[in-house]
Amino acid sequence: MSFDELMNQLVSNCVKFAINLAIAILVFYVGKFVITRLYRFVGSILLRRRVDPSLTTFVLSTIKIILYFILIVTVIGILGIETSSFLALFASAGVAIGMALSGTLQNFAGGVLILLLKPYKVGDYIEAQGYAGTVSEIQIFHTLISTPDNKAIIIPNGGLSTSSINNWSRREYRRVSWTVSISYGDNVEAARKALLDIFASDPRVMQGKDTDPAAPGADIARDTKSRDIDSQPVEVMSRKPGLFYRLFHNKRKVKDAIDKWKSTRDANLRGLVATVDYSPKVVVDQLADSSVNLSARAWVKTPDYWGVYYDLNERIYTELPKAAGISFPFPQMDVHVTGNAPS
Question: Where are the alpha helices (DSSP H) in the chain?
Fold first, then answer.
């Protein structure tokens, strides 16, 4: 190859590279502009839908990383660099990193499941992995809970996503139980009446029946006093010719038909609601060796659980003997001696 041919080829390659570089720079900035717009668009949608902030941050970060990776690979391909070897290198590095960080990736996947499925949220009192406390933070790799004695416990999300979790805050009501021991010969009915009077005097203890908050349509059943419900089926459509056209071209008729349909649906849902008797109960639970054990049970709202438990513990101890003449027994043994004792 002569010098002139070498120079011509070199100039041609430089011109080609310069054109590809200009195209790559243009594609990079256009792609960056598109990614920014898409990032803001998805962020606005998640914000309008009031998605959890932790999940919003995770989704936006993931979208941004994936789009920038695609953009960089595209730019490298425009510059003439073979992308197949580049992708193979990244895949090999990903496999190696995945094997080295298998536990971390499991926690990452667990964090994603927790953010999506929401078995608990910040502020819930949960019991899991041998610890119990209030959830203060839900992060991608771990969950931070605060125990009642103000210890900060960090639990990996991998175990939380695959193990059993007791979420005490999930239900609106909780049942408080006491075991009250009385002596043999004491009046059980008098003790029962005294305990029920103690429960009745505390406004935090629920009395009577109420709808089960977990039952279908419970929220509708609680909100029936403010509106009249027509429980009869509503015939929205008719076989008469032309009625469909007139109905759906009259906004008032459409609104009335929809309202009646919702009323019927609400009435049907109220029929599915389970009614639970939350009245306190006192029953004879066990005839023990030295005492008759009464089981006293009362329902309270979940935030009032421990306050009611400790307060009524003290009231039962101080008021029950005065009100019903009850004596609290203690373990005892009768020893009978037969025959003559040795001198």
Answer: 3-48, 53-78, 83-100, 102-117, 157-162, 188-200, 218-221, 243-247, 251-270, 305-324
Q: Half-sphere exposure of 228 toward its Cβ, with a 13 Å CA cutoff?
A: 2
Give the integer Cα–Cα distance in Å for 50 and 39.
16
Contacts 24+ apart (CB under 8 A), 93-99: none
Statement: 3-100 belongs to CATH 1.10.287.1260 = yes
Q: Which two tokens stand for residue 97?
A: 């990193």
What pairs with residue 301 in β-bridges? 173
Q: Per-residue pLDDT averaged across 256-265, rounded?
A: 70
d(CA 65, CA 53): 18
- CATH fold match for the domains 120-167 and 173-324: no
Q: Is the pTM of this model over 0.70?
A: no
When the candidates are 2.30.30.60, 3.30.40.10, 1.10.760.10, 1.10.10.10, the CATH number that belongs to 120-167 is 2.30.30.60
Span 65-107, pLDDT tens digits: 888 888 888 888 777 776 666 667 667 766 666 665 566 777 8
Fold of 173-324: Alpha-Beta Plaits (3.30.70)
Place of tokens 């536990």: 103
Query: How many beta carbons lie within 10 A of that of residue 28, not counting itself?
Result: 15
Question: Would you call 284 helix, strand, or coil by DSSP?
Answer: strand
Residue spans per domain, the chain: 3-100, 120-167, 173-324
Residue 268: both structure tokens together: 């049907």
